[in-house]
């Protein structure tokens, strides 16, 4: 059987036959790990190919028997287009990933079958059922599935397009997160559970990789004892890596030192907001807003660069939040920013909160990409939220600020670490300029509104409605801002 596994892309990022040029944003893409794991779970008698629409055109006339599509919420409309096109040709099309798992009834309307949860167990069973002509509409993975048999991903399937990624060497040691942040699809997908792969298996996989790689775990230190064992096993390998974890790493000097010795040079940290009120409302009080600067400084003093995930649009945010956030990022010497407009993804507690309150304004799922205002904020207008978010992104990635951060990072992170931040900053700047993002600071009276690729909000109706086919739970549209990490 010929199997095609697809990662859809948003229209403004999609590579097509008519628009074959791949946007120069490799630093914002990393290995399509969920699909390469699904490929590895596929028995060898089946022929597997991958297509990531972010880097190559999808052939809707491909000679295949089965099409698997993984997607998050913002890519649902495109995923449904793909399903329609292949099903019109009589092909079997199945789905998996975050959105199908959290909205399986919706996904079933468009696909022949839906994989809910992890691919391990479910995917081989689906293939066997299809071969026996007994395909079921829904395949649910066993709760807390054992990851000890998770295979090494088939990275060779990305060899044709490897140059378009920051790396195709992505590794996952743990899956899920023990926290229950209200906005987080990872927490909803994994039900606030954490599972781990055997340390020996992860170390053996890392040993086979080049010097530089990345961990895509949502919170690599969620299990402290596991993290210690993993880092200890990595130290003699002499590798260099980036990953993501909670800011709590700064509270454990021994574990922090061990992470650095194991090769950690950069971390994505979900800071989210400096407001204690917002942190409490999002069920993330453990981030301790009053200690953020101290904890972030601790990470950087250890020689680890920090990319901060920030959220704007929470209920304590007024029009001044954008200027305050920019000052915080400057004073904390943050090396990179992933900015997210508060977005209630279907299936999360936040979505239920906003739906009950009638505060969801936009039913277009393609705009649920963390870069569009789709809610009615509490203390500003939706237009102010959109303009302010665009302004903050554009200002943080202004060329002079990128270069200043690079120079300031050299004594702390070394030339290679600082250069990594420089490349990331220039890529984000390219992305912003390509999309025409400028915005304005809504706290400044009389400020001129800049252009923005994002269209105005729809008239406000009420009550509207990140892995895949999921082997990992990770995912992406406007990567890396595509999935909202929980850490």
What can you see in these coordinates?
The protein is of the alpha/beta class. The chain folds into two domains: 2-140, Rossmann fold, CATH 3.40.50; 167-434, Alpha-Beta Barrel (TIM Barrel). 33% of the residues lie in helices and 14% in strands. The chain has helices at residues 33-41, 76-88, 98-102, 104-108, 122-131, 185-190, 199-207, 224-234, 253-261, 276-281, 292-301, 321-331, 349-356, 382-396, 399-434; strands at 2-7, 47-52, 66-70, 92-96, 113-116, 138-140, 170-171, 174-176, 194-196, 212-215, 240-244, 264-272, 305-312, 336-341. The strands form three sheets. It has a six-stranded parallel sheet with strand order 2-1-3-4-5-6, with helices on both faces. Strands 7-10-11-12-13-14 form a six-stranded parallel sheet. Strand 11 (240-244), helix 9 and strand 12 form a beta-alpha-beta unit. Helix 8 (224-234) runs parallel beside helix 9 and helix 14 (382-396) packs across helix 15 (399-434). The longest helix has 36 residues, at 399-434. It is globular, with a radius of gyration of 21 Å.
How do the helices and strands line up, and which of them pair or pack?
Blueprint: E1 2-7, H1 33-41, E2 47-52, E3 66-70, H2 76-88, E4 92-96, H3 98-102, H4 104-108, E5 113-116, H5 122-131, E6 138-140, E7 170-171, E8 174-176, H6 185-190, E9 194-196, H7 199-207, E10 212-215, H8 224-234, E11 240-244, H9 253-261, E12 264-272, H10 276-281, H11 292-301, E13 305-312, H12 321-331, E14 336-341, H13 349-356, H14 382-396, H15 399-434
Parallel strand pairs: 1-2, 1-3, 3-4, 4-5, 5-6, 7-10, 10-11, 11-12, 12-13, 13-14
Antiparallel strand pairs: 8-9
């Amino acid at each position: 059987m010929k199997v095609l596994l697809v990662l859809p892309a948003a229209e403004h990022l999609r590579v097509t036959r008519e628009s074959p040029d791949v946007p120069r944003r490799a630093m914002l893409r990393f290995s399509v790990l969920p699909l390469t794991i699904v490929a590895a779970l596929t028995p060898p008698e089946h022929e597997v190919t991958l297509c990531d629409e972010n880097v190559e055109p999808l052939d809707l006339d491909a000679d295949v028997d089965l099409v698997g599509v993984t997607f998050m919420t913002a890519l649902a409309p495109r995923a449904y287009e793909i399903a329609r096109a292949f099903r019109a040709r009589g092909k079997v099309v199945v789905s998996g990933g975050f959105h199908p798992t959290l909205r399986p009834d919706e996904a079933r309307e468009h696909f022949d079958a839906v994989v809910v949860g992890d691919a391990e167990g479910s995917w081989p069973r689906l293939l066997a059922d299809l071969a026996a002509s007994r395909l079921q509409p829904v395949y649910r993975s066993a709760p807390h599935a054992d990851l000890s048999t998770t295979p090494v991903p088939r990275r060779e399937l990305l060899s044709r397009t490897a140059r378009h990624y920051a790396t195709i060497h992505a590794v996952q040691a743990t899956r899920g997160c023990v926290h229950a942040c209200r906005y987080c699809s990872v927490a909803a997908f994994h039900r606030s559970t954490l599972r781990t792969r055997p340390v020996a298996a992860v170390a053996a996989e890392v040993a086979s990789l080049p010097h530089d790689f990345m961990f895509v775990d949502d919170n690599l230190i969620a299990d402290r004892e596991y993290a210690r064992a993993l880092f200890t096993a990595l130290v003699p390998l002499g590798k260099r890596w980036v990953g993501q974890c909670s800011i709590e790493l700064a509270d454990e000097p021994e574990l922090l030192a061990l992470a650095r010795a194991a090769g950690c040079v950069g971390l994505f940290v979900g800071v989210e907001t400096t407001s204690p009120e917002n942190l409490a409302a999002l069920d993330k009080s453990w981030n301790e807003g009053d200690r953020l600067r101290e904890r972030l400084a601790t990470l950087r003093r250890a020689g680890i660069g920090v990319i901060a995930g920030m959220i704007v649009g929470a209920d304590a945010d007024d029009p001044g939040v954008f200027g305050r956030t920019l000052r915080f990022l400057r004073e904390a010497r943050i090396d990179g920013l992933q900015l997210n407009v508060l977005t209630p993804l279907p299936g999360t507690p936040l979505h239920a909160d906003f739906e009950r309150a009638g505060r969801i304004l936009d039913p277009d799922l393609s705009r649920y990409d963390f870069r569009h205002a789709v809610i009615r904020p509490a203390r500003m207008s939706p237009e102010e939220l959109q303009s302010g978010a665009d302004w903050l992104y554009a200002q943080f990635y202004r060329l002079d600020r990128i270069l200043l951060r690079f120079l300031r990072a050299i004594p702390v992170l070394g030339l290679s670490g600082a250069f990594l931040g420089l490349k990331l900053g220039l890529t984000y700047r390219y992305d912003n300029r390509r999309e025409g993002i400028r915005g304005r600071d809504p706290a400044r009276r009389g400020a001129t509104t800049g252009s923005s690729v994002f269209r105005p909000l729809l008239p406000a109706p009420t009550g509207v409605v990140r892995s895949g086919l999921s082997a990992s739970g990770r995912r992406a549209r406007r990567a890396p801002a595509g999935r909202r990490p929980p850490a």
